[in-house]
Amino acid sequence: MSDKNMDNANNIATIMNNAGFDVVSVRMDLSFRESILQFISKGQEYGDITMLINGAGVSPS
What we know:
InterPro entries: NAD(P)-bd_dom_sf. By secondary structure, this protein is mainly α. Helices cover 41% and strands 7% of the residues.
């Protein structure tokens, strides 16, 4: 779970973890290339990246 605001990322990660998913929160700003590359590197620490879901703007909260 990533967000520019870590409080948001942590809150959603907690909800998803409580629902049975394995989620970590990461600060990421989609408007900065370096931030995106760091996000990708973090994901690669857990194995090959096979999918990305961009849920920006779809959360009811």
